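Entry for the shared binder. Reason: the reviewer on the internal report wants the predicted structure included alongside the sequence.
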Amino acid sequence: MKIVKVSDGNKIIFDTNNVYFVENYTESTRSLTPLHHVHNTTDFDFLKSQFSPEHQILSNISNSYYYILGEKQDILEQKAVQEIIAFAKSENIVATQELTESVRKALEVFNTSVNKHFLITHREIAARQLLISAIYALNKEQLDKVDNVVMKIARKEV
């Protein structure tokens, strides 16, 4: 998992799979998921379990913010919103499959949590945010139709 650390105006990428990996991050962190959304401990405890206590990621931790660097999370979320709209406006089985796949990919960042209740709650919140992003293109019936399906996907019932 790649983690972006923001501290004193610097943004640095670290990788839990390669503790020697360090790279500058130049983009906005606005669309990234905060690290504390994907685990049920403090960021310090989570990072300590992934890196040695002397690792650079743990320096100045009280003045740092941490984010998950997903595979273009904003693009995954945009695709999910497009599939929500397409599904709501059709009865096509392919639209259902594409909706399920794109929403699952957009919510995948929340699959690392240890606590099942915590995981489902965060996935439901993220799913609601996807629905809010699609609301402009849907009428009430269409929104009701996709709401149930998207929330089942968030709960992994589909």
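Summary line for the report: The chain has a mean pLDDT of 83.
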